[in-house]
Amino acid sequence: MAISKLKPRHVAAGKSVGRTLTERIDYGKNPDKTRDGLLVSSYQCSPDTAAEEFLVSKQIYEQLTGRSRPPGKDVISYLIIQSFKPGDISPQLANEIGYKLAMEFTKGQHQFIVSTHEDREHIHTHIEFNSTTLDCTHKFDNYWNTSLAIQIINDRLCREYGLSI
After folding, report:
1. Torsions phi, psi for 4 (to 5 deg)
2. C-beta separation of 148 from 8 below 8 A
3. What is the 3-state secondary structure (H, E, C) of 56-100?
4. Is residue 37 within a helix (H) or strand (E), and if so which, with residue range?
5. Residue pLDDT, tens place only, 82-136
């Protein structure tokens, strides 16, 4: 069965926003888990510079809006994890479905990077998306039942591809 979950990401203790973004995105892109990066795709950013691009958008956001939050309270990105039943899907298809999930969920308003891991019995995808919108005027609203919205999109996509839910 395909499952999904959403995790807000904050700055790691003792680290900068840039360092935290770099470490989290690099974990997703781990070449040992993504066939040397072949199972990594992105939207409106380069996989090689995604952390820096996320950071620049946050700086522009602060300049445009004058709003900022203390690093420990600010959500700098969100992680969606999408896991599939063992043997149910190829890594390439998992990455394609992860990209479609991210695009539909963010409505194309946020940069994201999709990294599909095949290092476990179950194939799973890490979708890290920028909390700041592409136009740098606002941030993602993690509304009540956001996870349910992700699950609905995920389940529909899985049905479209004939996968178990």
Report:
1. -145, 155
2. no
3. HHHHHHHHHHCCCCCCCCCCCEEEEEEECCCCCCCHHHHHHHHHH
4. none
5. 999 999 999 999 999 999 999 999 999 999 999 999 999 899 999 999 999 999 9
- Report the pLDDT value the prediction gives residue 1, as an integer from 0 to 100: 55
| 6 to 9, 36, 126, 129: CA distances (angstroms) | 10, 25, 10, 11
- Please tell me the distance from the alpha carbon of residue 57 to that of residue 131, in angstroms, as a whole number: 10
> Kind and range of the H or E element at 27?
helix 17-29
> Tell me: the pLDDT tens digits for 15-36?
999 999 999 999 999 999 999 9
Q: Is the pTM of this model over 0.85?
A: yes
Q: Cα dihedral sign for 86, 90, 93, 98?
A: positive
CA nearest to 151, candidates 56, 82, 55? 82
Q: φ and ψ at 94, to 5 degrees?
A: -60, -40
What pairing do the DSSP bridges indicate for beta strands 112-117 and 124-130?
antiparallel
**Which amino acid belongs to residue 46?**
S
Tally of CB atoms within 10 A around 86: 10
Phi, psi of 124 (to 5 degrees): -145, 155
The letter for the amino acid at 96 is: E
Report d(CA 107, CA 110) in Å as an integer: 8
